[in-house]
């Protein structure tokens, strides 16, 4: 409701505005009876004629990032540290304190206080002391808005604080127009949300947190009086950055003013004055390198979210626009990060390798059916701090080791890529019963030179011939990770179909050499099924999550919801999903993927696995997955999934893939990822995998298929893992 103003009050405002204008003209020695009259006639403006920022405030606000519980603060982004709160969430004693300190007649005047202005004018004319402003809260609000309005030029913002009569006259006009249309409480609320309280805190919400570590609804009398006293000279009075004694003296002044206005009694004032300065300074984090103390591992997820944000048109037409929206738009972002899953992932990553180890275990966890990223962990601090001499990226780095991008291409994931060959084969009409007498070595049609070749051809071998060789179907070929079976199967299906399958499930080729091979020569990429292309734990986990979701691929998503400062939901939090596999194909692949983890397929065809401890860790809960070892064990990988979560971890040296992590670490990687999955599904109902149809299981007793003779018309050398890395490095 607008302020109720008497005709006399309006007349005083008009006359005073005219008087100020006349004085300004006299001082400037300018003729101006006509101009003086114009100033008087226009002293009272109209609300509609006000600058847009005064009608609809566009002041910058801090954006908040929370974990998926909507309560755990990850970090904030801001250029200006402020957040709007409604008047009902500001302690009544704080409202009384600011009125008593800055504008005792706030509820009586109509925007400009004739008495206050006249008193200030007389004091300034007499001189001999500090200049008196005579500004009401409404006039101060006008000044604060105009000097921070992001839609105005720098010169216009600077003009809002010019020490001129013309500027004062403009404030009177604007303040009068505001009071004609807005209620006193609305003006007070707007003022408290924009006033500067020192130490980087704009608005009462930021100030309350900055000085006392609490929301403004919980402010005490002594705390409110202290904060109210700061606005006159925030930098000088700030008890954090300025003079504590001056702050206490100003607090006493405010308390005395509150007694004078009848807000409190003398006894209450005396008690508050006796209270010591009990500060609890809380610095608001700003950006991904300033995440909550003790949780710098959250920075990798934060950085991934920021990159996602900068790609969303909903936040602006350009990347700079979107960056500015994040830093000043006042958004509330509930992310997909699960604090418990993240804590387990970080614990497990650092259990395998410490922070100071040159090797790393990046781990990612994804929710099937939504693509929401639950965790991103690695044994590194997300920090810009310097590293010891000779240590490139440890213990501190901000490189995206888990998600990839920038200078991070990813890591070879070994036999986990056999999944894409199996899916391509199932989609082509082959069944899980497709049998092949897998030899210890398989001559292929690809020309190759050097040790390990067979008559000038690439000749992949099984890692453990005694356990792997012989008649295999997809179940035990996958369970025992038989190289020669899957290289043969890929040749039957077509290498290009396998590469395309990986891309459909979200595998991104960030390395230039990989991208070029996939684009120009995929049909001849014979070693692709053995996982020689670089990938990331996030891509790999999401690819397997697609199978867990029975063929529904969802773009990785780091948010649950985004709410604008005005309370409206921004339509960016919904999963972006599409079907990329027939559900029965996905079910069949899952059926075979239960073999590696020590479980059994629907018709009992599993007979050995490379990660059987997973079944024990998950306590028999339905789970599937696959191990992967790259050439010479330069990396070790495990990816597992249930219907509710998929997680992947890759042990590697991010700075030197030629540094072989060794086969001994594989068991630790398996254990680490399995425990992340166990945490993610804890408390959730056990959900079984759907069995595939007979059309895709086939007859387990069909005749053995024999190896094909290599085509003498050879094509391109698939290259070794090490050589491919050297190629990427030029």
TrEMBL record:
Residues 364-670 form the Penicillin-binding protein transpeptidase domain. It comes from the Bacteria. Transmembrane segments: none annotated. Gene3D superfamilies: Biosynthetic peptidoglycan transglycosylase-like, DD-peptidase/beta-lactamase superfamily. Residues 686-730 are annotated as: Disordered. Residues 73-258 form the Glycosyl transferase family domain. It catalyses: Preferential cleavage: (Ac)2-L-Lys-D-Ala-|-D-Ala. Also transpeptidation of peptidyl-alanyl moieties that are N-acyl substituents of D-alanine; [GlcNAc-(1->4)-Mur2Ac(oyl-L-Ala-gamma-D-Glu-L-Lys-D-Ala-D-Ala)](n)-di-trans,octa-cis-undecaprenyl diphosphate + beta-D-GlcNAc-(1->4)-Mur2Ac(oyl-L-Ala-gamma-D-Glu-L-Lys-D-Ala-D-Ala)-di-trans,octa-cis-undecaprenyl diphosphate = [GlcNAc-(1->4)-Mur2Ac(oyl-L-Ala-gamma-D-Glu-L-Lys-D-Ala-D-Ala)](n+1)-di-trans,octa-cis-undecaprenyl diphosphate + di-trans,octa-cis-undecaprenyl diphosphate + H(+). Keywords: Carboxypeptidase, Glycosyltransferase, Hydrolase, Multifunctional enzyme, Protease, Transferase. GO terms for molecular function: glycosyltransferase activity. Its EC number is 2.4.-.-. The keyword Transmembrane helix does not apply. PANTHER family: BINDING PROTEIN TRANSPEPTIDASE, PUTATIVE-RELATED, PEPTIDOGLYCAN GLYCOSYLTRANSFERASE. This is Transglycosylase domain-containing protein. The lineage of its organism: Bacteria, Bacillati, Actinomycetota, Actinomycetes, Micromonosporales.
